[in-house]
């Protein structure tokens, strides 16, 4: 019948105001700060709800004084005391409990804390592996607590919205058949069947399509997905997506649903109003105007096609490229206080462009009275007005050009310049700028493998006018594909799906899966398509990335309770780790250690 | 820009009433039934929302007649037509749309359906592996659709309730360190680190405790859990639990939270009123009164301790057992119309008892005027009134006895008899009867291993009065453990946790983990406990089992969209399966196939 004995809180550390003056309360929490002035102790007691100042007066009993002297940072304690209003001069308007303090009558130490490896709330300054090793301390920081709350709020709001619109959340299995395409599968060896494996799903794609064949009509799931990719940047072995699929829909139904969802969720969670409809850009327009298919629309600086002007100019490099079917694009960097468009800075911009294939970055400065100077200005003599009008340049601006035979490389190089300018010139508005990218190419050429492959995945529907030319001209086929972009990040990707066995097989073949292999891997989907599949489509916003952007972070590690580090290791529990021989024997496995390099 | 062309529904198959009379509508769905009367076609069109009768009148165009003739069961079609009220004589009150029918103006075939391997809605009669192979057809049945909706509703209601009470849902990783204890871990080989593995979590136990150390205060998660156990009965490789943990709580806080949760959820989802507080039984009382720690309280038939009467009787078997410190327990099977307490039936009951270790089942019939007859009645001469009073027996009842040296075996054997009687005598009320089982033993003896082990898990707090005798008398230690039982199933299990390094190490040692092994496996938890851990506790209701009981099913397969079969195989996608040699090479694995048996 017994229970552990400790004084249980009657309220939290974020709740007391002067209305509670005189009440006897119990608080449970952690010593956040601890100051002694002789026999007078001030303790900032913290829990998830806030901080309350606890005072051990200098007239406190010797026993209480003794406990107070024993306290250190992050000791977990129970305080019983009386709420008293602070004198006006001591009121702290920054704290929700800043009107009061609690005069301690007794303090119990619930647990002690070893010397801290870093100060709580010092997150950003602490080496990440140390934060991850002691994640239980890092999680106590205000930042992590706020972000995990935001994540909770965001996900719950998504669930409520979709549920209110007749979507069922349905759990799909996480131990499935290995059907690798694109990324590698994580495998789970079977103990019962030697030599056989389950795979962790890269996404619930096939299962959600099968749910549609199963008549489930509207499905969603906050789904964990797994990809065994090489660690780079912000990738995690496992990540979370809001997986959505609907039957009897066309593209715009999916887009409208998502617009409604994010409108509702941003209003509820962020108190932020989004436009009812998001801007839509075709893939081609996005590349032409912003140089990439995930444009950051928080600032303008569009790219312009200046092929015509380049032809008229006397700059041989440009003229040659245009003459050979290439592209010259320009943008205008606006004059910005405190930024000098120096040679050094232009070289930095050029370096950014070169990463994406540009040979160089041509430039022209716009001087007083709209005179052009420097760089390639001399080649545009007589074309000044036309050029200024074309790129909408004003006094003090800098015009930048990239020329390239390859359209994508031309776009991407100048996009890198645009991105750097956005940051350096502080052009980026504080805003959430969503847009749709539509009409994507269905296939892209795999140079290494020497064949076409799906740009998105093999289950996306080609647009109807390309159905006759899939095989003869895969490169020009557009699909019913759509990406949702937010502030320069791709945050969701989706498509209308194929639901026809023969069309699906044609796509498999174009992607270099012969009928036998396709049947082995995806036979269960093809089978399902033989039994009255409905037209269907869906989308899958990435939860980690969405919450990262919403909380103004630049790494998804900041919005995941227990992320792996960039080496795919968890420094807290040291996973992955070696296992017992018995476990290997049970799974019929022998490790084939790579030979050490000579 | 193009999209697939089909007529998109303007309403669903469950929505139309006579108020819609005269409207032009489009319906999308499946051919559920299809009857032709000459040129008159009746099509029951089905979607997730209901069934609507579509009529192709005999005056329809030849083109429409031709399409109608082509239809077969489960073809997916779009129907455009006009809603018309049925004549009064044709109104079907069983269908929500029974007042109307839709006169088809055109029908498009969206996809065809191969001959069905079984009829939709024939679920219960179809062999399970066939249902699982064609799960996309099985999911179209009304039963599966209703159950997956119930599951969705249940889980959403749980989330809303806990969120409204300041719980954050926090995702814990599914690729963690292998810390096997109890069941086997599923392993995931690392590609980057040859010979190292992640494990899939058997539960988020350690991570939720670490979240408490991280100050998260109140956590929940609908968590997927994985156990590599031998397939038996209703086990799944992966299952779902509502994982809950709270800081600064005592046992009754957790119990109250769950009572509030299930009250709210059953009201919302089932329109069912539960009692505000659930009955609480100690482990000892549960065994004494119902013979087991998961009693079905939908019927009474309590077990009685009849040691005293047995001693007074002249039945040597009973007297010996009592004299040697054993137990004699009895129950009274109530007279039931249509049930004959024949020798044959009593033998059946005895067989049930013997499974749990009983040597036999003694019995006495209560005849007219409360006379005792048959079985061991002669040994109770003179004790009739006392016996009848003790077991509360009436005319026509049957008194049944089990005697055993071992208390648990005595209880379990008679419990099996009680369970069978409940079913056979149709004593079971249609109700949801929750109860708590508390004050569990902390340890149980592992005969095979020759050491003590945790009855629940090693992180549960011993009750305070046993702290000095943990090592000297583990068998008598009670823990702050609790199970929630519903209708004879354990549906949740939880405890107040240890949060002290030294106490945790003592428990590890008693459970045969030396300090080195404990540190290797659970070092990260012990480390966390060095940094001011709060008192905490939690619980984890099983979602699959809860929804199974709520939907009056006897297998969790019925409430999981894509379960594995009892051989741990998915007949739909044939997982687990062999993988490419390249995948094995990437993971540094060689298969050690077992030698074929001679």
UniProtKB/TrEMBL annotation, chains A, B:
Its EC number is 6.1.1.23. It is an enzyme of class 6 (ligase). Residues 205-208 are annotated as: Aspartate. It is found in: Cytoplasm. Keywords: Aminoacyl-tRNA synthetase, ATP-binding, Cytoplasm, Ligase, Nucleotide-binding, Protein biosynthesis. Residues 159-571 form the Aminoacyl-transfer RNA synthetases class-II family profile domain. PROSITE patterns: AA_TRNA_LIGASE_II. One of its GO terms (molecular function) is nucleic acid binding. InterPro entries: Aa-tRNA-synt_II, aa-tRNA-synth_II, aa-tRNA-synth_II/BPL/LPL, Asp-tRNA-ligase_1, Asp-tRNA-ligase_1_N, Asp/Asn-tRNA-synth_IIb, AspRS_core, GAD-like_sf. One of its GO terms (biological process) is aspartyl-tRNA aminoacylation. Homodimer. HAMAP family: Asp_tRNA_synth_type1. Belongs to the class-II aminoacyl-tRNA synthetase family. Type 1 subfamily. Aspartyl-tRNA synthetase with relaxed tRNA specificity since it is able to aspartylate not only its cognate tRNA(Asp) but also tRNA(Asn). Reaction proceeds in two steps: L-aspartate is first activated by ATP to form Asp-AMP and then transferred to the acceptor end of tRNA(Asp/Asn). This is Aspartate--tRNA(Asp/Asn) ligase.
């Amino acid at each position: 019948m017994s229970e552990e004995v400790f004084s249980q809180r009657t309220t939290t550390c974020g709740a007391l105001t002067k209305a509670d003056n005189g009440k006897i309360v119990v608080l449970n929490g952690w010593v956040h700060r601890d100051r002694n002035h002789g026999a007078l102790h001030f303790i900032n007691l913290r829990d998830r709800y806030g901080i309350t100042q606890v005072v051990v007066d200098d007239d406190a009993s010797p026993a209480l004084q003794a406990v107070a002297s024993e306290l250190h940072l992050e000791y977990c304690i129970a305080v019983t005391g009386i709420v008293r209003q602070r004198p006006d001069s001591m009121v702290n308007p920054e704290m929700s409990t800043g009107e009061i303090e609690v005069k301690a009558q007794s303090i119990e130490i619930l647990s002690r804390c070893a010397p801290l490896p870093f100060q709580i709330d010092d997150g950003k300054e602490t080496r990440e592996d140390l934060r991850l090793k002691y994640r239980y301390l890092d999680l106590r920081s205000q930042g992590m607590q706020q972000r995990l709350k935001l994540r909770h709020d965001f996900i719950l709001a998504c669930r409520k919205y979709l549920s209110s619109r007749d979507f069922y959340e349905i759990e799909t299995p996480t131990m499935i058949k290995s059907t690798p395409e694109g990324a590698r599968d994580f495998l789970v060896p079977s103990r019962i069947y030697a030599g056989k494996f389950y795979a962790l799903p890269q996404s619930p794609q096939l299962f959600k399509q099968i749910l549609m064949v199963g008549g489930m009509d509207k499905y969603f799931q906050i789904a964990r997905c797994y990809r065994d990719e090489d660690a780079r940047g912000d990738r995690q072995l496992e990540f979370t997506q809001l997986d959505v699929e609907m039957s009897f829909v066309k593209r715009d139904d999916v887009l409208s649903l998502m617009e409604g969802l994010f409108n509702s969720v941003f209003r509820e969670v962020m108190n932020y109003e989004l436009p009812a409809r998001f801007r839509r850009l075709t893939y081609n327009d996005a590349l032409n105007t912003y140089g990439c298919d995930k444009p950051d629309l928080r600032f303008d600086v569009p790219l312009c096609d200046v092929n015509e002007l380049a032809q008229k100019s006397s700059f041989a490099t440009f003229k040659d490229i245009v003459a050979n079917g290439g592209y010259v694009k320009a943008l205008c960097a606006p004059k910005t206080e405190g930024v000098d468009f120096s040679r050094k800075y232009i070289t930095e911009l050029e370096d950014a462009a070169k990463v994406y294939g540009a040979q160089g970055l041509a430039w022209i400065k716009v001087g007083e009275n709209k005179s052009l100077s420097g760089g390639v200005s001399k080649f545009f003599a007589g074309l000044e007005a036309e050029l200024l009008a074309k790129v909408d340049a004003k006094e003090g601006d800098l015009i930048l050009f990239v020329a390239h035979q390859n359209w994508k490389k031309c776009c991407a190089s100048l996009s890198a310049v645009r991105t750097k300018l956005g940051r350096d010139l502080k052009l980026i508005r504080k805003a959430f700028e969503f847009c749709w990218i539509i009409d994507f190419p269905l296939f892209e050429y795999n140079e290494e493998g020497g064949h076409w492959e799906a740009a998105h995945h093999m289950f996306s529907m080609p647009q109807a006018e390309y159905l006759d030319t899939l095989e003869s001209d895969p490169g020009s086929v557009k699909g019913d594909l759509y990406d949702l972009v937010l502030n320069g990040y791709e945050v969701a990707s989706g498509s209308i799906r194929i639901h026809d066995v023969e069309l699906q097989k044609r796509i498999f073949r174009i992607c270099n899966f012969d009928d036998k292999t396709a049947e082995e891997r995806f036979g269960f989907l093809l089978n399902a398509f033989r039994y009255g599949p409905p037209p269907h489509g869906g989308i899958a916003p990435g939860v980690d990335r969405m919450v990262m952007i919403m909380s103004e972070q630049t790494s998804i590690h900041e919005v995941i309770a227990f992320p792996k580090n960039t080496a795919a290791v968890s420094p807290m529990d040291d996973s992955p780790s070696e296992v017992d021989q018995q476990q290997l024997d049970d799974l019929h496995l022998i490790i084939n250690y790579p030979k050490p390099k000579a």
